[in-house]
Write a structure and sequence with these properties.
Largest sheet: 4 strands, antiparallel
Number of strands: 4
Helix content: 25-40%
Strand content: 25-35%
Strand order of the largest sheet: 1-2-4-3
Number of domains: 1
Radius of gyration: 17 Å
C-alpha cells in the first residue's frame, strides 16, 4: 500500500469553523491551529510495483486542487507525518486520520480507481482510496487526548456512519 500526501482538504473558512466548534465543545480556547490534507492510499495488485514512469503517471493523476504550503511548519509536519510510520509531531500537536469504514468503497474511490486503470495502471493498481489527515495544535498543557477519548467533538471531524 502506497500512502501519498494529497492537496489541502479544508478551506480557511472551514478550518476556522472547526477550531471554533472544537473549542466550544471542550469549553476552552485551547485549539490554536489546524491543518488538513487529503491522503491517497493506493493498493497495488499482489506482487506488483511501480516503475518510475508509472509512479510519475500516478502522481500526476493524483495532483489536483491546492498543494499544501510546506513553508508553514505545522503543514510541513502534517505532510511528513502522513508518509511516516513513526511521525515526529511538534509539541502539543495531535495527528488524526479519517478513512472510509472497512468494507466500504467510497464513490471517490470508485471513480478514481476507474480513471487510474483507464490511464494504463490497470495491471498495477487494485484500488485507490482517499482519506483525511488533520494535525491539531493546542495550547501548552491542554489535555486534548482526554477529549479525543471521550469523542466529544469527533462528530465535527468525521461522519461516523461512513468513516472511522
Amino acid at each position: 500500500m502506497l500512502t501519498l500526501a494529497g492537496p489541502v482538504a479544508y478551506s480557511p473558512f472551514r478550518v476556522n469553523a472547526l477550531i471554533n466548534n472544537i473549542n466550544t465543545s471542550v469549553n476552552s480556547s485551547a485549539v490554536i491551529g489546524i491543518r488538513t490534507i487529503y491522503v491517497h492510499y493506493v493498493s497495488l495488485k499482489e506482487h506488483k510495483s511501480l516503475d518510475d514512469d508509472k509512479t510519475a503517471m500516478l502522481t500526476a493523476l493524483l495532483d489536483y486542487d491546492s498543494k499544501p504550503d510546506v513553508s508553514d511548519s505545522l503543514t510541513s509536519a502534517l505532510v511528513d507525518a502522513v508518509s511516516s510510520h513513526n511521525p515526529s509531531l511538534p509539541d502539543n500537536s495531535y495527528l488524526l486520520r479519517v478513512i472510509p469504514r472497512k468494507g466500504t468503497i467510497s464513490p471517490w474511490s470508485s471513480k478514481a480507481t476507474n480513471i487510474l486503470q483507464n490511464c494504463g495502471l490497470q495491471d498495477e493498481v487494485d484500488r485507490v482510496e482517499r482519506g483525511l489527515a488533520l494535525i491539531i495544535q493546542v495550547r501548552k498543557g491542554f489535555p486534548l487526548d482526554e477529549h479525543l477519548g471521550s469523542g466529544v467533538f469527533l462528530g465535527f471531524i468525521y461522519d461516523r456512519m461512513t468513516q472511522v
